[in-house]
Amino acid sequence: MPNVDLHCHSTASDGLLAPREVAYRAAGNGVELLALTDHDDIAGLPAARDAAEECGMAFVSGVEISIEWEGTQIHVVGLNFDPGNAALNDGLASIRAGRIDRARRMSAELERHGIPNTFEGAIRYAENPNLISRAHFARYLVETKRCKDVRSVFETYLVPGKPGYVDHRWADLADAVSWIVGAGGVAVVAHPARYKVSMGAMRRFLGEFRDLGGQAIEVVSGSHSLDDVGTYGRLAREFGFLASRGSDFHGPQESYVDLGMLGYLPDGLKPVWSVF
Ligand code: AMP
Ligand code: MN
Ligand code: MN
Ligand code: MN
Fold first, then answer.
1. Is residue 117 part of a domain?
2. Residue 253 — very low, low, confident or very high, per pLDDT cuts 50/70/90?
3. How many domains are contained in the chain?
4. Are 37 and 148 in the same domain?
5. Is the CB of residue 16 below 6 angstroms from any atom belonging to ligand 1?
6. What pTM value is reported for the model?
7. Does the beta carbon of 125 lie inside 6 Å of ligand 1?
């Protein structure tokens, strides 16, 4: 089975390496097929594609779209679409526009809890200011010694119920899937085990996703345990989904799993890359 990594981030969103560096690092780790999947932005794709070509590594376009489903923030990855598609680009621009307002509301909430100026602090970390993310707030709160690492910032400040978390209206599931499919791509549920929803709700979500034209789920992911791989491998078979594999690499300092350094798909699943 080829070493495929179809989920990772660059400085075009909240990753720590430039798109070219991501591609070179992936090739150095033995990746044979890569997709760069920045949050809500595809600006990194041309540079990553050029670098992949220099390395002799196959590359497909990617993006990780933030949606809201029944009050939960869920991520849908798009793969192998036409990056010039107008509806996709307009849709992504609309999500990015909401991010600045949300970041200001996060900053106001943190200020109310005695932590000032986090918008200004976080945006310094966002090389793409239109793509300010909770990860940038986390880096600033580590810098200012509010917490020892990014993980504990999330636990203490940035998840639902904590002072820096604000509700936000992301894209609709139907819109995200239609942008991806309309641009000729494959829609994939990102790291399904990570969402804090019941198995009943997850099954409902997967059913809706499939009815809307979604074709795949991540089975092997940097955010999945071995148990999770088993669970979502079974669900992929049951729902007839193609299976994807991706590290969700953000940077050498912040990710448990490096590019391409993850287990292979369980037997009997159809890899999503078989349809590229
Ligand atoms: P946002 O898209 O602004 O809501 O930020 C979500 C990003 O924050 C994710 O893509 C991860 O990069 C990061 N993130 C979310 N939860 C955690 C966590 N528990 N630990 C570390 N990083 C996280
Ligand atoms: Mn991220
Ligand atoms: Mn994600
Ligand atoms: Mn991701």
1. yes
2. confident
3. 2
4. no
5. no
6. 0.98
7. no
Any domain includes 262: yes
Per DSSP, the residues of 155-167 read IIIISTTSTT---
Co-location of 178 and 199 in the same domain: yes
Atom of ligand 1 minimally distant from the CA of 150: 21
C-alpha 90, offset from chain centre? 19
Gap between the Cα atoms of 168 and 178, Å rounded: 21
Say yes or no: 145 and 20 in one domain: no
Ligand 2: centre distance to CA 1 (Å): 27
Q: How many CA atoms lie within 13 A of 188 on its CB side?
A: 31
Neighbours of ion ligand 3 (CB under 5 A): 75, 190
Structural domain boundaries, residue 180? 4-96+170-275
Rounded-to-integer distance, Cα 261 and Cα 37, Å = 17
Provide the Cα torsion 139, 23, 216, 69; round to 10°. 20
* Whether residue 57 sits in one domain with residue 105: no
For ligand 1, the distance from its centroid to the CA atom of residue 134, given in whole angstroms, is 6
CATH number (domain holding residue 175): 3.20.20.140
CATH number where 142 lies? 1.10.150.650
pLDDT digits (tens, 9 = 90+) for 162-180: 999 999 999 999 999 999 9
> Would you list the DSSP string of 12-56?
TTT-SS-HHHHHHHHHHTT-SEEE---BT--TTHHHHHHHHHHHT
Helix H or strand E segment including 100: helix 86-112
Tokens of 197: 């929803």
268 Cα–ligand 2 center, Å? 30
Looking at the domain assignment, is residue 163 inside a domain? no
